[in-house]
Amino acid sequence: MAELKAEPSNYALEINKNLVIDARKTGSSSLGGRANDCRKANKDQKECKGNNTKFVIDKVRKKARIKAVKKIKKGDEVFVGYGQSYWRGGKNKKKK
What we know:
Structural class: mainly beta
Strand order of the largest sheet: 1-2
Helix content: under 10%
Number of strands: 4
Radius of gyration: 14 Å
Low-confidence stretches: 1-5, 92-96
Shape: globular
Distance between the termini: 32 Å
Number of helices: 2
């Protein structure tokens, strides 16, 4: 059996310390992999009004999806909170 090696990813959603979902591997069908986080600095610059979705995690199936928490009009950008661990440079974030 081939050994699997973890690759750093800016598209990783850490479910727990043993489970990470990498949106790079979900193909073009992954809307969640394209969603950005609307942070305070972005709001201050009027780049966004806030996150309009949230992550819904299914630990049993080892899957995640995003769910709208505000009305999203056609053409609106999708925003979802990445979580504090992402911005602190979590272990799965690509080193620059």
